[in-house]
Amino acid sequence: MTAPRLTRTYLAVPAHRERMVERAAGSTADAVFLDLEDAVPVGEKNAALRTAIDAITRLDWGQKTVTVRINAIDSPSIAEEVEKLSGLARLDAVLLPKAERVVDVIGIGERLSQHRGGRDHPLELDLLIETALGVVNVDALAAAHATVAALHFGVGDFSASIGARSDEIGLSPRDYRHVASAAEEHRETALDLFAYPMMRILIAARAFQLRAIDGPFGAFRDNQGTLGSAVKAASMGYDGKQLIHPDQIEPTRSSFVPSASDIASAQRVIEAMRAAERDGHGAVTLDGRMIDLANVRMAERILRFAS
């Protein structure tokens, strides 16, 4: 992976909706992906590609990470999409939906490496893990090609893939609960459908030094739901979260930015270990707890998000 970049807020926008694309370019999102796949009707696919190319070339994207979600691997347009997008100097990555098989990832990675246009390096390849097969193969997919830079979790299609009884993106089914025994008065505890796939994707990303991006929370007008979903992803260690509406940018960003107390604590850990190392120690006691270099690595990650 290239130098780390902040991708806390990853705004999705249909590529054929020119005004929405322009608003996304001017937004405060860290990253944007222009969608050529699910958000675009079949009859608008060609127009979406043209609009995406024009927007990437013409608009001022500032410091944003700019990505295009191409169509699925079996799409008749994918070869044209990869070839035309590869030469765009301002484009950072392409996002492959429904990534499931290593051979497909290798094929796209090789195409990106061959069609560089005027670029001195190939585009990064992000993988959208959104099916049962994708989760089963996620370790191999993460290591499939040198261009792979990030794993995204596709919560909606994953729910459909496993047959979950829900039609809400990013929410566990209402009836997915643990029911206690009669002796415990049949108390119910809500369960998280996404805990396992999120952790599998995160571990694969970390194992191969990739970014991990959580999927969107579909009820974009539910500020508390947006916030809670983002807090979960940030707490787990994800690098960011996909958004489907600009109103989700600020609550999501705030979830990934550590608090003032978290920042102060991280700085104290680093300073304490520096002092310990100067004295020839590999560990030190701070506030009644033992800290060592593992704590420093955790603290440094917290500070990387402090902006």
Automatic annotation (TrEMBL):
All residue ranges annotated as the HpcH/HpaI aldolase/citrate lyase domain in the record: 9-246
Highest taxon, organism lineage: Bacteria
Pfam family for this entry, one: HpcH_HpaI
Amino-acid positions noted as binding Mg(2+) in the UniProt annotation, renumbered to this chain: E130, D157
Keywords from the named record: Lyase, Magnesium, Metal-binding
Keyword Metal-binding applies: yes
Gene Ontology MF annotations: lyase activity; magnesium ion binding
Cofactor(s) this protein requires: Mg(2+)
GO biological process: one example: oxaloacetate metabolic process
SUPFAM superfamilies: Phosphoenolpyruvate/pyruvate domain
Binding-site residues for substrate, renumbered to this chain: R69, E130
InterPro entries per record: Aldolase/citrate-lyase_domain, Citrate_lyase_beta/mcl1/mcl2, Pyrv/PenolPyrv_kinase-like_dom, Pyrv_kinase-like_dom_sf
UniProt similarity note: Belongs to the HpcH/HpaI aldolase family.
PANTHER family the record matches: CITRATE LYASE SUBUNIT BETA (PTHR32308:SF10), LYASE BETA SUBUNIT, PUTATIVE (AFU_ORTHOLOGUE AFUA_4G13030)-RELATED (PTHR32308)
Protein name: Malyl-CoA lyase
